[in-house]
Structure formats: structure tokens, C-alpha cells
């Protein structure tokens, strides 16, 4: 099944919201972040119900235990998402900060000032936590955001976006501040890559294939992130018992998340014992 995406409505709403967010005060943005955090906790049951639909569909598709774990939400993880939004409140507002100023020989003063990007398109894979992370960071920095998460987390993402976007409206900011693409059709991603009239920048977050596809096919400017490679290094003078526990936990605690260990490097002098 395919869903039609009304890019004109999404784009215009995003542009209108971006103009308001660009001049929103730190107090207004922090208030919205707190409202978003509170709404997540208050609507935990609704989120978990949607998440269960995704988990059931994922199990039917044969997703691995690690991928299902990455997809799964519970009360604790919802509280963690809320706390992440609250942590953003404690950060200084970057918008308007002047990072440099100098005088030209003719007396003209030139400076660097932080301003919002505008409307950010975020494309990411099946981890519903990212929906909240991306929305919170964009709002804190005065940007509107259009989210397109992985299809495996479809119900979770839609429900979370609905909850936090309503919270933003209740806080007095525009409805178009946080929007998501209500479609599982992969063609939507390719459409986003060329929405220059609506999106100011694209940020892909995920594996190498996703990032390269966006970089190679987008006409919208792209902020390219690395795919990452999480290392654990065990030195020759390390406490070997503790080091083994740390290395084991680094990979097996949650194998499917982006900060799970991918490379274990051991000093050659202790490698036989440690390995």
C-alpha cells in the first residue's frame, strides 16, 4: 500500500514554522521542550501500543532480536527520551551567538553569527528514539523539521510525532515545527532528496548505504555524517578482569544500537590472556 504525500502542505507549513522558530526566544523554546517531555511520559500507554504493532510486524518479517531490541520501547526508554529533551533545556541557546568579529582596513566590522538553517529534512532508520532526538535538537536551534523514519518503526514514529507536535502547539509554537512523512513508500525518500523549494538541508542518519544514497542523489544540500565505528581498546596494563567485562558489555548490552562496539583492539602483550 502507498500513501500520497502532500509536499506542498508539508513544505509550506514547514517554511511558515521556520520563520517563527528563527525568532523564538530561549524561554519559548525551552518551554516547548518541557511540554514535549511531559507529553511523552503522559502518553506512554499510547506510544507502547503503537510500538507493539511495529514489534509484531517486525517479528512477522523475521527481524533479528538485535533489531527488534533497537525498535522496542518501554517505560524506561520513554522516560529516557523525555529526559533527553529536558537536558536540551540546560544547554545555552546557540541562536544569535556571535562567534567572531573583526575590522577591515576601511573600518567595516565583519562578524560570524549563528542562525537557524530553516527547514531540516531528517532521514533515519528504524529507531523511534531518533524521532524525539531530531525534533528536540531542531527546535532548540530554531529549525523546523520534516522527519522520515524507517518503515519498521512506522506506527511508533507517527504516534510520537503526533504527541510532541501537539505539545509544541500547546506551548504556543507553530504546528509545522515538527512534521513527519506519513508513508512507508521508499519513493518518498527519493522525493525528499529533491525538495529544494521546501527543504533547506537534509541530514541522513543510519548505515553506509542510506548515507551514500542520500549524498549521491540529493539536490538539496546534505550534511553528511560518518557511519561510525565504535572502538574498545584494552591496554597492556589494564585490569584484565574489568576490561573483559567492559568489552563484553559494550557489544552485548544492546547489539543493535549505534554505540554498540564494532572493533575490539587488544595490546599484543595481553592479547592471549584477554582474548
Break the fold down into its secondary structure elements and pairings.
Blueprint (H helix, E strand, L loop, with lengths): L6 H15 L4 H17 L1 H18 L3 H7 L3 H15 L8 E6 L5 E5 L5 E6 L4 H12 L3 E5 L5 H17 L7 E3 L6 H6 L8 E5 L2 H10 L13 E4 L5 H13 L10 E4 L4 H4 L1
Task: Describe what is shown at a glance.
With 275 residues, this protein is of the alpha/beta class.
Strands of the widest sheet, in order across it, are: 5-4-3-6
Largest sheet: 4 strands, parallel
Strand content: 5-15%
H-E string: HHHHHEEEHEHEHEHEHEH
Shape: globular
Structural write-up:
This protein is α/β, with parallel strands linked by helices. The protein has 11 helices and 8 strands. The chain has helices at residues 7-21, 26-42, 44-61, 65-71, 75-89, 129-140, 154-170, 187-192, 208-217, 240-252, 271-274, and strands at 98-103, 109-113, 119-124, 144-148, 178-180, 201-205, 231-234, 263-266. The strands form 3 sheets. A 4-stranded parallel sheet has the order 5-4-3-6. Strand 3, helix 6 and strand 4 form a beta-alpha-beta unit. The radius of gyration is 21 Å and the shape is globular.
Comma- or semicolon-separated keywords:
275 residues, alpha/beta, 4-stranded parallel β-sheet, two-stranded antiparallel ribbon, 11 helices, 49% helix
Amino acid at each position: 500500500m502507498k500513501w500520497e504525500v502532500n509536499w506542498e502542505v508539508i513544505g509550506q507549513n514547514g517554511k511558515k514554522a521556520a520563520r517563527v522558530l528563527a525568532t523564538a526566544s530561549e524561554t519559548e523554546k525551552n518551554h516547548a521542550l518541557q511540554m514535549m517531555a511531559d507529553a511523552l511520559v503522559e502518553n506512554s500507554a499510547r506510544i507502547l501500543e503503537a510500538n507493539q504493532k511495529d514489534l509484531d510486524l517486525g517479528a512477522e518479517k523475521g527481524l533479528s532480536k538485535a533489531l527488534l531490541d533497537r525498535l522496542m520501547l518501554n517505560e524506561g526508554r520513554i522516560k529516557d527520551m523525555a529526559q533527553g529533551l529536558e537536558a536540551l533545556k540546560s544547554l545555552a541557546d546557540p541562536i544569535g551567538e556571535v562567534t567572531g568579529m573583526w575590522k577591515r582596513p576601511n573600518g567595516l566590522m565583519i562578524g560570524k553569527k549563528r542562525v537557524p538553517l530553516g527547514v531540516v529534512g531528517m532521514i533515519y532508520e528504524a529507531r523511534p528514539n531518533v524521532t524525539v532526538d531530531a525534533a528536540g535538537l531542531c527546535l532548540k536551534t530554531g529549525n523546523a523539521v520534516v522527519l522520515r523514519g524507517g518503515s519498521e518503526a512506522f506506527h511508533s514514529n507517527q504516534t510520537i510525532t503526533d504527541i510532541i507536535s501537539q505539545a509544541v502547539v500547546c506551548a504556543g509554537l507553530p504546528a509545522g515545527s515538527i512534521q513527519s512523512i506519513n508513508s512507508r513508500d521508499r519513493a518518498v525518500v527519493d522525493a525528499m532528496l529533491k525538495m529544494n523549494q521546501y527543504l533547506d538541508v537534509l541530514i541522513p542518519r543510519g548505515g553506509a548505504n542510506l548515507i551514500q544514497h542520500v549524498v549521491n542523489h540529493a539536490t538539496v544540500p546534505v550534511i553528511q555524517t560518518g557511519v561510525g565505528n565504535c572502538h574498545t581498546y584494552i591496554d597492556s596494563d589494564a585490569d584484565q578482569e574489568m576490561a573483559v567485562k567492559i568489552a563484553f558489555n559494550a557489544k552485548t548490552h544492546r547489539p543493535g544500537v549505534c554505540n554498540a562496539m564494532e572493533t575490539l583492539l587488544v595490546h599484543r602483550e595481553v592479547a592471549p590472556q584477554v582474548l
